Amino acid sequence: MQTQILEACPEQLQILVECLRSGEVIAMPTETVYGLAGHAFDDQAVARIFAVKERPSFDPLIVHLADRQWNLERLVAAELIVREAIPEALQAPLEALMRAFWPGPLTLVLPKAERVPDLVSSGLATVALRVPAHPVAQALLRESFPLAAPSANRFGRISPTSAAAVLAELSGRIPYILEGGPCEIGLESTVLGLEGESLTLLRPGGLSPEAIEAELGQPLLRPAVHPAEVLAPGMLKSHYAPEHRLLLFEEPTGAAEAELSALSQRWPVLPNLPPEAQALILLAEPTTTLAQELKSAGLAYWALSERGDLNEIARQLFAVLRQADQSGAELILAECPQPGPGLRHAIRDRLRKAAGL
Ligand code: TXA
Ligand code: MG
Questions:
Q1: How many whole angstroms separate alpha carbon 281 and alpha carbon 235?
Q2: Gap from CA of 148 to ligand 1 centroid (Å)
Q3: Between the CA atoms of 150, 152, 154 and 157, what dihedral angle is there, to the nearest 10 degrees?
Q4: Does residue 151 line the site of ligand 1, with CB under 6 A?
Q5: Pocket test for ligand 1, best of 54, 57, 62, 121 (most atoms within 8 A of CB)
Q6: For the segment 241-282, what is each residue's pLDDT rounded down to a tens digit?
Q7: Which of 139, 265, 277, 326 is the most buried (most CB within 10 A)?
Q8: Is the preceding omega at residue 29 within 30 degrees of 0, hence cis?
């Protein structure tokens, strides 16, 4: 099968809708990462997603919805969820989150209606729902039906944030990739689930927990390690992994100038490996002295953001990991942000998973 890249014009969108209707799967852009999409109510299409991605069937999918004024009643009417199993006390907060953050990088895991195939939810009684904000994803969803879509990478590998990255992952396995440019957010959505009468953070992602908590007016549960790891396989160890070895070092906290310019102290550069076999990923552009030092040591490096802006770091992270992985280096050294607010939690989570920690 030859994989073709299509543009979001009406004729080509129609080709994609027909293709999806027939039970085939395609890649589509979202504001977080590219997804591998199939008809969410079609068992055969959903099975195809798992096969193409080589994803184990215990890892449930997110169902993507067209942008409407969603609330619980409409989700029930669309045969996606059942309302009875949602605690009364959580109904208003859930609807407030939908109003505030849909469309956007927030996924809500709710009690599933019968029409949603068991394969979508890996046999769980819940289904994950999200409304992507990308205009091209929205154009496709408006013309079609709910689309089940995991990230469009082969299982366990780095999520794609451009059509070219999808092609590198899935060329020859799917007929079409819908072009949507580079992903604006660059990290997968934040996943929230219900736990008793509370909302719990199942996976940190492109929407910061603080923004959600500000909307809710109360803290989210944040399990250190979720008791049922299979419920959030983003928690599985070898996720988002490059092919080459990845070592992390912690972002220095208020490092002294002396330390900043002492290369060997700051990075675990391996003396027995030639510098050209090592790639370095920094959060921010290094100081001139440091850049000089890196240059004379012969190390290739990437700075994720000139000024260490977290949104920009998130946007660049997967693309740069991919580049470093293909740079010919045997070892990738990456600076890991300290825990903290905003996207720090999610960036740290992805880097640690990529390093197998
Ligand atoms: O931003 C995103 O979320 C991207 C784009 C394509 O929308 N999608 C994505 O899908 O990251 P995937 O399959 O790579 O990750 C889905 C996450 C997994 O961590 C999965 O465990 C969780 O959502 N999930 C899905 N259904 C669930 C359920 N019923 N209960 C608990 N977690 C669920
Ligand atoms: Mg994924």
A1: 23
A2: 10
A3: -90
A4: yes
A5: 62
A6: 899 999 998 887 765 444 445 555 566 556 678 888 899 999
A7: 139
A8: no
